[in-house]
């Protein structure tokens, strides 16, 4: 974190005396030396470990863990080693991003996730938790050499009734600092309501509803880091997954967890996770909406289980000079029994095979008087009579095959969809002509979600210990089910804002979404303090809320400093040029179709705009890609065009208007959308 030297807050705080500041700097020097020593010890162990590890696997595991440990112990001079301090009676605890201890194991810096550190975030005058003084440190922004210096501190004497809360100058400086580059961690200034969520138990599924900029993404990422710290071994095995809306967003947040020392958390979009087929076509809105509807889960379940048929006759199997026979009635009982057990479909097929082989085995044992070897059992499982039986009564099927059959065979679809989908809806699913091959079929993105549902009926997918889902309001019921399947016995952190839902299937109610995510009792928690969007800009965006048809609590912005300008002009070049004279990043948000022209105009003016994912100061962002991102200065072009571009265009505009950290300029030549007119 870098923060400017704090200005004096209204509530009196201890003025940093030069002696005290010198003592804190000395502690920093000691801590840095101790961290270096820890790293050297780890490196030494690493080289010794090379020689003592037993087998190759253990050596590799050990090597990986040690290399990871050394990385965790690296000291980035651009990142403050500690940001806070607690005085509790005679004890002093510095709080930082990682644990540092001296040669005899005495802690010099506590990891922000350690139980003791919780008091740094939670102690208050009303509930001081034995904390007499909470100190926050101010650091200079990392300069040219990438080094940050300890410049100041700010104390709250909780023991004499002083509490700054969100009036902390250091918090204010952190919130107001210019944003360039990827998202940064907020460990130094996590607020009590956020901390409650970050430290929720691993077993807890929580769903955070928060207006734009209330720190949902930040909370989700810090919760992941917290859980990995507390349950390292367990979560290393099962894994933690962060799901975001698109690659640009994942790129934007990608630096946060590594900065917190966590390198092993995976990130993915839903589409990347459900990569079952080559997407070659696009559905119309009606077909896509239908495919994302929860009813499809029932249709697919029926279609799959309708493949199971009753055995139509006995089987006989030649085995050397013997012939074994299993009657039709017995076979029927086997199939019925397995069916009643409701295993995953593919497992059911293997169960039927194993039971039929078991019946053959019993006959062989009765005749031969001893148990056949395993190789005999394997052979019997594959003999033609058994294979034919399985292919008839429990046929193997792939997700693609089942879907293609439903899309081409109107009768099969009508049986599976009976009472669930209307004839018109069934027609929406129908392929007019059968594809030449499954590989070249006109698969759509929604088909990948359906294929995943089928894959989940065939076999249980491997799950994660914890999943963080950002922008969850945009998930369809079918996508939510895909995540539910992958969270197995684990838990979820669900982050979103119903007002920012832009997909045709966007959630209108969190309880419904929790149901689809398999956690109907998950805790729904609001976050209401906005850290990004200046109050004047929030006020403008809030005018859209009544038209968005969702019940969400309004946000309270912490930022009084920003500016808002609504101008009748199309001169994006002039607006961008002015914005670039100020400090921080500039984002130009336009309807997707207008982006090429905007880029051309800015290029022609020599302003060197970058497209999304670029690292320049000026970025042109299509409106459909801006979710979750933020820029110091935002220029929103032609709101009416953004609204007109899609059915939930007003929601999209709400997202676009809430990306600004410092200033928002709205440029328009067409009339503004009705709710924005004065
Ligand atoms: N406690 C905090 N201290 C300092 N900055 C914070 C704090 N909480 C959030 N922020 C900052 O506020 C900005 C918005 O946070 P974040 O992106 O997590 O919000 P969000 O609720 O996910 O927003 P959106 O709904 O628009 O995606 C970020 O720059 C983040 O670093």
TrEMBL record:
Alphabetized InterPro entries for the sequence: DNA_helicase_UvrD/REP, P-loop_NTPase, UvrD-like_ATP-bd
SUPFAM superfamilies named among the record's database cross-references: P-loop containing nucleoside triphosphate hydrolases
The UniProt record lists the keyword Endoplasmic reticulum: no
Lyase recorded as keyword: no
Keywords, sorted A to Z: ATP-binding, Helicase, Hydrolase, Nucleotide-binding
UvrD-like helicase ATP-binding domain boundaries: 189-534
Positions with a binding annotation for ATP: 210-217
Segments traversing the membrane: none
Top-rank taxon, per record: Bacteria
Signal peptide range: none
PANTHER family: DNA 3'-5' HELICASE, UVRD / RECB / PCRA DNA HELICASE FAMILY MEMBER
Protein name according to UniProt: HelD family protein
Organism whose genome encodes this protein: Catellatospora aurea
